[in-house]
Specification:
- InterPro entries: Proteasome_assmbl_chaperone_2, PSMG2_sf, Rv2714-like.
- This is Carboxylate--amine ligase.
- It holds the Pfam family PAC2.
- It is a single chain.
- With 284 residues, the protein is α/β, with parallel strands linked by helices.
- Helix content is 40%, strand content 20%.
- The chain contains eight helices and nine strands.
- The strands form two sheets. A seven-stranded mixed sheet has the order 2-5-6-1-7-9-8, with helices on both faces. Strands 3-4 form a two-stranded antiparallel ribbon.
- Strand 3 and strand 4 form a beta hairpin.
- The termini are far apart.
Length: 284
Amino acid sequence: MIELEGLPELVDPVLIAAFEGWNDAGEASSGVLAHLETEWKATPLVELDPEDYYDFQVTRPIVELGEGLTRSITWPTTRLLVARPPGAKRDVVLLRGIEPNMRWRSFCAEIVGLCHDLGVELALLLGALLNDSPHTRPVPIVGSVSDPGLARVLNLEPTKYEGPTGIVGVLQHTLGSAGLQAVSLWASIPHYVAQPPNPKATLALLRRVEDMLDIPMPYGDLTEEARAWETGVDELASQDSEVAEYVRELEERKDAAELPEASGDAIAAEFERYLRRRDRGTDG
């Protein structure tokens, strides 16, 4: 277990976490952490020992060349960073890592210990999965929470999923069992355009995090990148009649399933987000 020394006192910290790998279709969820780390200029706190959790024949280290052709090796691991978002009254701990290859229970126990040391009581875990969602429609975001009380507060349904899970599901369960509030948010990625990156899905997750935490999120270039991504997929789909027809079928199925009140809720949520960002001077 890592022991933190000389740690600054954090104010009501919340954890936002994502892992590359099985839980990260289109690199949409890890893209959120990479974006926030850059935009908020997050400060490194600690990283876990990769020897404990990674098989380097499966998740290999990366060799990089620096000045004078000096070599350095970056090992696969999980890192924690901290940031104070502009306009926010609380700190955010960013947990960015790669799904471990082994010892998941020890891995999750170590994360729980770090959360206790840092004073974290709420964790948002991000993921992305492949689905039959058309790329032309808003990215569906589904939430999972094991605590019925927290589900009511956040207007989320308690999870009813049964089946294989990744480190996001295991960590959420472990955090909840340790008395922390843990929520997972999942973006649905079109399976016919699964290659990363997917800035549209990253932006959708970022907006949902903003709604849940009421912390202004820096969109940066993501809005324009999302538009460009969708335009690019439109152009590719138009070049193949079978793909174009398949996308139209998905659109019709999606539109038929959407109730008018659901569309109204989406419009209301977007308007409320706009008002919050305008009041903080962050709209744009």
